[in-house]
Amino acid sequence: MLIPQGTRLVHIGPAKTGTTTLQSAFHHNRNALSLHGVRYAGPWLNVRPAVRGVSEIAGKRRMTPGSEQRDAANWQRLVADVTGAGRQRVVISSEAFAHCTPTEINTILDSFGQDKSHVVITMRPLGDMLASAWQQSIQDGNVMPYEEWLRGVLIDDPDGTTITPGFWRRTRIDRLAEQWGAPIGVDRVTIVSLAEQKRDFLLRTFEQMTGLPEGVLVPDPRESNLSMPYHVAEVFRWFNEFYRKQGLWNAAEHGRLVENGAMKLLKGAGPDAVEKYPFVLPEWAVDRSAEIMGQMNARLRELGVNVVGDLDALTHATLKTGPAAAPTELGVQDAARLVLAMMQVAKREGLRELHAEGEDDAITLMLRSIKREAAREASRTTASRERGREITGREALGILRRRVTARLRKS
Questions:
Q1: Which CATH number does 8-225+281-316 carry?
Q2: In angstroms, how far is CA 207 from the centroid of its own chain?
Q3: Residue-wise over 262-282: b if at least 16 C-beta within 10 A, else e?
Q4: How distant is the alpha carbon of residue 369 from its chain centre?
Q5: Tens digits of per-residue pLDDT, 162-192?
Q6: How far apart (Å, rounded) are the C-alpha atoms in residues 349 and 65?
Q7: What phi and psi, each to the nearest 5 degrees, are found at residue 130?
Q8: pTM across the whole model
């Protein structure tokens, strides 16, 4: 499917649908794109900094003075870039588009030119997206355990009015298609199903849509939206719970220290950790996900949108199932990495040193748990060395101490 010259291709990429990979491929190959009459709008990896200037939801986390003015200026910069592209095909990509209201959608499409706009929405099987959505809710400060959260979004609150509203806002592709298709017509809305496709399917699809030769879109491997293993995500959930119970909650500080700090440093722990602590879905959640996905597909067919890939594969995808019991232990190496990451971020942000103020202080509890784990590991020193596979708690904490000391000396 090749879009006409001069088309503004608005990509709505819900999280975990290959969006970061696609954005990286466009962002880092701008010179090659221009040779073929394609422009990737804005100077950013994705245009979220500009979308914040028009979307109340996307801009809800403004944390610094003057950010509203910067967001507005970024939006005007993006619009100028798009309108100045002439007959070039323009790609505009952001997860933030999935959170826009109908009024904001009209504003965006009016600015880009409704008669020139074409909307693309990418989608993976719903069951595949649940674990990553729970992790995102933890990054936002959620304290609900994984299976409790699953029941909340799939059964108790399927409309997303109270439990993680953002999940259904960005995941109900039938509603997204209807809302974005209302101003421009559903014949200019395309759904790309990534179910049971090769890893490069999304890149090759966008090359075909924009008239790029195959192989032009190559992402930077350093830019990928990695997930955390279950046990690390569970530690952050407990951190959120302690943080809130102590009356310490501050959304801006949490965003800097956890969501945009330590979590980023700890993502991508490696295939071994992910394999040891996998996210799985209970059978009931698999069945419920397939039911909801079937409803979405039926509505998409009723709307008559364009489809690339197999819609039915979104419903019938094979998912890893089993008990969703949360991990109850954290190895001392992971605990050491966690503390080191938090210290690195605290130092970077120039935050004040945290002092324990009571028996239940969150930091005190975390460090006490680490010390207990270190003591247990140290008691197994001989066996660990004989196996040659594990580092002892004493050694791990020694490494942590030396690294932190070296970092402080460099500052």
A1: 3.40.50.300
A2: 24
A3: bbeebbebeeebbeebebbbb
A4: 29
A5: 887 788 988 999 999 999 999 999 999 999 9
A6: 16
A7: -65, -45
A8: 0.78
